[in-house]
């Protein structure tokens, strides 16, 4: 069936249903409420089937403008327009309602496929042999079957067809998906870094979000996504500490205390749907001696998150002053660092004798961002207009030092699972280059990825130990970027940084500076990856973007602040910035041996 014929077929089904209900005296508004979830469910299934067909028949991702994907969205839009009028769905006009559900269909179906096939570029599929490809196809089939079953059960409950068995039905759907995956694919973890139970858990959460995009009143459905699940409120124009309920979200700080984060919504007239997310730094403890020294010494606060001890940074990109920070009146989120795991921990306890450190960094980050997402969803819907549109929201997602590492390791999740495609990463002083010795970032990856439960939270196309190394991860991320122009990584650092040098196990800051310079030149070949290297050479500087002197200072003729603005307003024109400086002639002993850049500078 051609794309146009398929669209007309779906549309005719929905319009026939509408005529039948009206003939029976049905309420047109009720028809909209019941028809949209079914239409969205149909679209998700058709869109997912279209993606699977591309891999099975064309050997890779669908081409831009694929007819079957377009037809699925057209049928959805036709169904909504044929059954809804302005204001019936979320108070939105029909165009906005169509935009919302079309985005939900495409983004959720794509997300389910990307975690299986290895990103939108299908990297896992490309690297797989025929047996592994058969496995991935089976995983995608099982995912879509589970998602369809969950959506049907949730829509039925919302329509008054009975909710008593909803939880049991959804549990059975997840169990069946796991069994199907296990039966068809015994080595899934070796192919995309996750196990069947993780796949089923993530699909179930997607069902919640799809349902929240189609049903206005989700009370009684038990969803963990959407405006009805908003967990907090905060005043505009001031930083507010938001505690997170660990029993609900599975979060915890390193010492077992509750996690919490900060949020600042803009004053009236600000940009609610423009977001800056910053991850706090604070080093990392790897072994018993350094963890115990921090835990029992004066750095106990590195294992907890409190409003008093973890107040947001106040300079540069962290400034509340619009004359300094162009993003001061955006929504801003600040995540304290309390697990000493570079925001990579997947929810494991690491035991050192009588000392236990909870490695929950990625769990905490993702819970906080889901909470922020749901509140933004609620606020933007209440504000009117087009309401919450994750595909139109623009975000900076970055961090400082250990937080920069965390931005590297979680950026793909912001794009692919949270589904904020117009997100720009800005890891600051968190490159994590490899020094080529047995004591290195890559070696720590070998040791700690399994112990911290990190593997399942890395991209499905880069989850081996060497993916802990920033340049390796950037190279893997690059083919996935630039689906939209904002999808870019902006790496920041001063070239003389003794702290970052030690964190990455380099013998001297000079050796680290050479690694920075090599990475800068290598990034010339990576689409969507750009660097901004400052050149203070008379003293070591660790972390630059929250410092006014660097934020407003210039490198190669452009201030850091203007560079960030350009990433939003003219992303197609982004280019790296660095200067040679006087590093190669420095008389500072620990900078000895710095080589000139091996590539041309702007």
How many discrete domains?
2
Quick one: biggest sheet?
A: 8 strands, mixed
Low-pLDDT stretches are: 1-25
Portion in helices = 40-55%
* Percent of residues in β-strands: 5-15%
Walk across the major sheet and give the strand order: 1-2-4-3-7-8-9-10
> Judging from the principal axes of the Cα atoms, what is the shape?
globular
Euclidean distance between termini CA atoms: 53 Å
Global structural class: alpha/beta
Strand element count? 12
Topology:
Blueprint: H1 3-23, H2 28-58, H3 67-83, H4 94-117, H5 123-127, H6 130-158, H7 166-184, H8 188-192, H9 196-214, E1 240-243, H10 246-249, E2 260-264, E3 271-279, H11 288-296, E4 330-335, E5 348-352, E6 355-359, H12 361-383, E7 394-400, H13 402-416, E8 422-428, H14 441-451, H15 470-477, E9 489-494, H16 498-503, H17 509-522, E10 529-534, H18 548-551, E11 554-555, E12 558-559, H19 560-569
Parallel strand pairs: 3-4, 3-7, 7-8, 8-9, 9-10
Antiparallel strand pairs: 1-2, 2-4, 5-6, 11-12
